[in-house]
Amino acid sequence: MSVIVNGQALPLSEPETIASLLLILAPLPPFAVARNEEFVPRTAYAECRIYPGDRIDIVHPTVGG
User: Fold this and answer.
1) Is 48 helix (H, G, I), strand (E, B) or coil?
2) What residues contact residue 47 under an 8 Å CB cut-off, 6+ apart?
3) What are phi and psi of 22, to 5 degrees?
4) If one looks up domain 2-59 in CATH, what number appears?
5) Which of 27, 31, 47, 48 could form a disulfide with 18 if both were Cys (CB 3.0 to 4.6 A apart)?
6) What pTM was estimated for this model as a whole?
7) What was the pLDDT predicted at 29?
8) Which tens digits make up the pLDDT trace of 3-60?
9) What residues contact residue 58 under an 8 Å CB cut-off, 6+ apart?
C-alpha cells in the first residue's frame, strides 16, 4: 500500500493507522495531523485507519505571521 505523506509517496505494510504511522516517522512535537485534508484529533490516532492513496499531512506550528 502507498500513501502520500507531506507530498511524498510512502510505501506501508497493511493495515496501518495514524498511530502506527507516527511510530514509524517519529515527528518531533508539537505537531498536528490531517488525513485527506481533515484534522485528526490526537485521541483518534489509534482508530484512524489509513487507506491506499490517502494523503497525510503532518504539520508543525510556527511563530510569527
Assistant:
1) coil
2) 17
3) -65, -30
4) 3.10.20.30
5) 48
6) 0.90
7) 95
8) 999 999 999 987 799 999 999 999 999 999 999 999 999 999 999 999 999 999 999 9
9) 5, 6, 22, 25, 27, 31, 32, 33
